[in-house]
Each structure stands twice: as C-alpha cells, then as structure tokens.
Design brief:
Layout: H1 2-9, H2 15-32, H3 37-50, H4 54-66, H5 70-78, H6 82-85, H7 89-102, H8 107-116, H9 121-133
Helix pairs in contact: 2-3, 3-4, 4-5, 4-7, 5-7, 7-8, 8-9
C-alpha cells in the first residue's frame, strides 16, 4: 500500500501500478467484507487501455460476468482472437460460466476444454466439482 501511495505521488499511471491497485482492491475484501466491483472495473478498463493482454481482457470479461452482465462478458470473449484463446485455460473457465449464466448452450463443452488445459490437480478437482454442481455453479 505504501508503494502504491508513492507511485501515485509520482503522477504517472502505468501497467504495473494498475495491476498492483487491482490486487490491493482484492486484498481489501477480507478487511472490508466487500469487493468494490465498480473500482475494479475502472482499473480493468485502464489496464486494458494501457496493456490489452489476453489475461487483462479475460479478467475484464470475468468482472463483467460478476457484475451481472453475462451477455457483455460473452461479447468481450467472442471479440478475442480465437487462435490465441484456444489454449488459454482461464478463457474457457470464464466462457463456461458466462454461457451458463446467459442460459446459452456450450457451457459443458467449455468446461471440458478448460479441464483439458488444466495441469494443476487441485484446480482440476475444483473445476470438476463445479461442473457436477450444474450450469449455474
């Protein structure tokens, strides 16, 4: 937090400062009991503007989904270069959740692809449980 304050005093705002600010908001959740989604969206917008990496774009789509906009999340995911997302596991996890939330077909196939790309046994078990819980998990 001190480093973020010092960086803000410098008067410039770059990618790494933005990523740190996003993490700071997430860290505040256990302290405040809530996650400031609006501030997160603003920071994700700034991050995507400055460094539109695949991770930043998928994270922003996930946040849209958390804010109750599954159609917007799907539109954002659909706009990504399909050749780049084929092997990007987080894309498939977010896609599965967005499809399920929007009541659209394909959630099971997206989960299957996410599982194919998952190397970590703990993550695989989590995603498998989520899949068994149903499309709205």
């Amino acid at each position: 937090e001190d480093l973020l304050t010092a960086a803000a005093a410098a008067g410039t705002f770059g990618r790494f400062q933005c990523e740190a600010a996003i993490q700071s908001l997430h860290i505040q959740r256990p302290i405040t009991g809530r996650l400031n989604h609006q501030a997160l969206m603003l920071l994700h917008d700034l991050l995507v503007e400055r460094a539109p990496s695949l991770g930043a774009l998928v994270s922003r789509a996930a946040l849209q989904l958390e804010l109750g906009d599954p159609s917007g999340a799907l539109a954002a995911l659909d706009a990504l270069p399909q050749d780049r997302v084929q092997s990007y596991q987080p894309y498939w996890v977010v896609r599965r959740r967005a499809l399920a939330a929007a009541g659209r077909p394909g959630a099971d196939a997206a989960l299957a692809r996410a599982l194919e790309l998952t190397l970590d046994p703990g993550v695989r078990a989590f995603l498998s449980r989520e899949g068994r819980a149903g499309p709205d998990a």
